[in-house]
Design brief:
InterPro entries: FA_desaturase_dom (IPR005804), Fatty_acid_desaturase (IPR012171). By secondary structure, this protein is mainly α. The protein contains 14 helices and 2 strands, in the order ααααααααααβαααβα.
Length: 364
């Protein structure tokens, strides 16, 4: 617990309200120094890591699709579907998400760069980078600014005004999990503005056309080209590709929701942004994120978003470094008496779904 004299107005409703202006400045200095230390240490070890993961992912995808050429045989269908699902998870989570964050731009490799990567997902990369990299990571958990708070269809905090349309949200969330890539695809459309009639119609149409092109590309690959290549196994291969996509979607949805909504993760009112210092921004990331505990393979399969706290603090830091800095971030939280939300996957999933059910109904 810091001993500095309190010069700030305490926020009694927040776990961070005890911090002083001096605390925020000190936190900013410590985290800036940590980020600079890792940036200065990046090198061939890190570049070799991402290239190795890309090779593994491509090998898994080729192997999975090869097995599905015999998809009418149950063992081949199961093995091919599982392998393809793992390949899609790796591509979306550890590769696509992180490459498009600019985590590997320092390598200056045009093939592994945020400006050139287009991921295996129906969401166009450019739209995702705006809604996620800019909007979400700038305004993390700020009501009315961060569209990730409930994704425009879910009530995940009592600060959101209740409406009868939230009552069936457990069903909405189940469907969102199964078809998560489509929810991500329309995220940048800002559905709230469309409902209110405050959107730019031409810009909305432009984005919809881009989404349509990406969907046609993905469907053409997964639901036409590769099933056709399997000849008489067309329908079984089609079903395998659909299943692999659903598995990837449910996994991504679970990991992302567990990093943002479980337990005592905080949301903030828009006036929190008025004059927000860098230290206050860091603290908002700490209070508004949650980690998931697990082993090395688990962290890899989450795209290291199991270290969601570290990712929100340093979104452009290579993901393979999050496990390295996590103990130091936790120590900083203990030093300043700040929350460090962390738990097992089962605990975080349970906590998140409890919120989905609880806030479907009116609350005091």
């Amino acid at each position: 617990m810091t001993t500095n004299v309190n010069t700030a107005t305490p926020d009694t409703g927040s776990a961070t309200g005890h911090l002083t202006d001096a605390d925020h400045e000190a936190i900013a200095r410590e985290l800036d120094a940590l980020g600079a230390e890792i940036a200065a240490d990046l090198g061939e070890r890190d570049a070799a890591y991402i290239r190795r993961v890309i090779r593994w992912q491509r090998g898994l995808e080729i192997g999975g699709r090869a097995m599905l050429l015999a998809s009418s045989l149950p063992p081949a269908w199961i093995a091919g579907t599982a392998t393809l699902a793992v390949a899609k998870i790796l591509e979306n989570m550890e590769i696509g998400h992180n490459v498009m964050h600019g985590q590997w731009d320092w390598m200056r490799d045009p093939k592994i760069h945020s400006t050139t990567w287009e991921w295996d997902n129906v969401s166009p990369a450019e739209q995702w980078k705006h809604s996620h990299n800019f909007v979400h990571h700038t305004f993390t958990n700020v009501l009315g600014k961060d569209n990730d708070v409930g994704y425009g269809i879910l009530r995940v905090t009592p600060e959101q005004k209740w409406h009868w349309a939230y009552v069936p949200q457990p069903l909405y969330n189940l469907l969102l999990a199964m078809f998560f890539e489509y929810g991500v695809a329309v995220h940048d459309l800002e559905i709230d503005k469309i409902r209110e009639g405050t959107n730019d119609p031409e810009e909305t149409r432009r984005k919809l056309r881009a989404i349509g092109r990406k969907i046609r590309r993905q469907w053409g690959k997964d639901y036409l080209a590769f099933p056709l290549l399997s000849g008489p196994q067309f329908l079984s291969t089609l079903a395998a590709n659909f299943t692999a996509n659903v598995v990837r979607n449910v996994w991504a949805h679970s990991i992302i929701f567990c990093g943002h909504f479980p337990g005592d993760v905080e949301v903030f009112e828009e006036d929190r942004l008025d004059g927000e210092s860098r230290g206050e921004w860091y603290v908002r990331q700490l209070a508004g994120s949650a980690n998931i505990t697990g082993g090395r393979f688990f962290h890899l399969m989450t795209g290291n978003l199991s270290h969601q706290i570290e990712h929100h603090l340093f979104p452009d830091m290579p993901s393979n470094r999050y496990a390295e800095i996590a103990p130091r971030v936790r120590e900083l939280c203990e030093k300043y008496d700040l929350p460090y939300h962390s738990g097992s996957l089962s605990r975080q999933v349970t906590s998140t779904w409890k919120k989905i059910f609880r806030y479907a109904l009116p609350t005091r």
